[in-house]
Amino acid sequence: MSTWASTPKHLIIIKKSLEIRTKCLSTADTGLAVCYHNMGGIHEIMGEYLKALEYYEKSLEIARRSLPTECLSLAVSYNDVGLVYHNVKEYSKALEYYERSLEIMKKCLPVHHPDLAGLYHNIGAVYKSMGEYSKAFEYYQKSLETREHILPANHPDLATSYNNIAGLYLSMNEYSKALEYYQKSLEIRRKSLPANHPALATSYNNIGFVYKSMEMYSKALDYFERALDTLRHSLPSDHPDIKETKEHIERVKNKLLLY
Q1: Distances (CA, A) of 24 to 18, 31, 259
Q2: CATH of the domain at 17
Q3: pLDDT tens digit string along 53-112?
Q4: Of 158, 193, 163, nearest to 179 (Cα)?
Q5: How many structural domains are present in the chain?
Q6: How far is Cα 173 from Cα 209, in angstroms, rounded to an integer?
Q7: Domain extent for 4
């Protein structure tokens, strides 16, 4: 059963647990904070961001009162609140909470810890959403450098970092740099993932977008068709990703007819 399908059942269970804990535990008990945090996580998965914030903030309030100021659990809570604020497009609030998380993590973790790489990525993503590309690049690069230091050369997380930087270059209309990083991402995914993994289709689609933006429609068509072939082997025929890729192919074919 998928996470989405089972989420309402999980929500009911956690609500019952929360009712019991609120009756039996002190309002400063960390067990109650965990329960609030879990409730927030379920609502976030369901896309109910305001409810998620409500429970994450309750969890964070307890954690602030009961945990040391440099506890990693606090850093995780700040990060989770930041994620929700990013999702609701309150970017300054997202950055505020990410920076609080980063302050703790830098004190408690080694310089090249994977959690720091993830947090650098999150901060970069906010700056990208704000259109502040130089700041976004700074943090994406920090995330990449951290991952390069601790991960094997063909680790999928490195492919993700290269993909993020490529997307940033694409947003800046720097197509040759975007292609360079998308190709690096694709190379790793080809080596580390099954032949028909959906992430490969994502890479093919991304490269197709770059070629389309460069008006190199034959190249774009080639990569969109690779994406479609991969998706057909990994997803149901009525999946929206297949429909979307088919639409990309039709648009490019129409462009080719004009030349």
Answers
A1: 10, 11, 73
A2: 1.25.40.10
A3: 999 999 999 888 888 777 888 999 999 999 999 999 999 999 999 999 999 999 999 999
A4: 163
A5: 1
A6: 11
A7: 1-66
